[in-house]
Amino acid sequence: MERRSAEPFKIKTVEALAMLSRQEREEALKKAGYNTFLIDSSDVYIDLLTDSGTSAMSDRQWGALMMGDEAYAGSKSWKRLEKAVRDVYGYKHVLPTHQGRGAENILSQLKIKHGDYVPGNMYFTTTRAHQELNGASFVDIIIDEAHDPTLEHPFKGNIDLKKLENLIYEVGAEKIPYICVAVTVNMAGGQPVSMKNLREVYHFCKSLGIDVMFDATRCVENAYFIKEREKGYENKSVSNILKEMFSYSDGCTMSGKKDCLVNIGGFLAMNDDELYARSRELVVVYEGMPSYGGMAGRDMEAMAQGIYESVDDHYIAHRIGQVRYLGQQLIDQGVPIVRPIGGHAVYLDAKEFLPHLQLEEFPAQALAAALYLDSGVRAMERGIVSAGRDQKTGQHNKPKLELVRLTIPRRVYTNNHMDVAADSVLSLFQKRHAINGLKMVYEPPALRFFNARFSPVKSKLINEET
Asked: I need a labelling partner for 156 at 20 to 30 A (CA). Which of 107, 182, 186, 285 fits?
């Protein structure tokens, strides 16, 4: 018999959750324009919107807050954060930012010229937005298997080297300032990149003078999958695997709000001295002094501690295990999800879940709204709404994956909460043909998924049961 395991922590503080009636949830959903991003937190029962900034901090992190040095320049807390990044990730230079997109902004401004191309293993919303705002075109060079949600492939995040070669042949290496490698790939379902692929991509790019920059937001989860799935790494620690991963890059952007186990903050890291000097100049313009970069000293202390905690093998095994616990329940009941189950979330395949809806009826957005209406569980859309519009044609970008992301915050919920979420998804799956589509009634010009508003194409989001 397989022995069950428990969380590698105990709970010291609790927070009461909202328990709204269905009528109250319906009113909250209408007020939010059927956009789960616009629902008030006080109206949410179980919040699976994102794992960004929603982690529970440890006792040592809370203690570290009291050590915060709030000096405007040369903060001791900054020195501790800098040391943690160098110890765990191995980069030479580190610059703090208020969060990950601050690092994306600086990197994009410094590296990109108008007319450049930035290849990557599937887009991410804010990353691509910064690249495009600075005049580049994003090119997806992820392996084809990543676009098939039913396929069991151990490393769906891998770069297709042939696609990269074809792009370089077409536009020239001088038009590619860097390749952006996400570890793991959020939009593909939290899928990892293999060490072999990272190594091959790095050596190929260096032979052509192209930098490799990681989107390292969920890098610890990627390291854990390498330990599980790649031959030769099964007996290595997550910490050692992580160090090797980063050796196949020239730098990274990091949102500390995920794997670093804090509620705010990020950094830009690199090995190049010249790029570092230029980055320091822009940090002052957009973020703050290079010794705080938009973060308070106490936040830098908490992040430094969180970085060390994140590579604990017991912690990351539980973190991945809880995501699988939710996902396996849905698989067992025939619910279509992205497979294999990813590192930070379970992704519902909204196309298969709601096959009666056209893509222009925003099935993932409708399903996320229906989930909140059914149970008060908040999830988020990752499909045509998130993909935005083509800059040249003005038409909707139509990604092959139309997903609803059930994102698990770190160290926040128990498996009982996962059971509640699973029950709600299963209930909706049983009456899936009663769920109606949505129409967009307000569309922001950029990153529309945050603030867009919708209304049902019919009188009700979910048809009344007869």
From this structure: 107
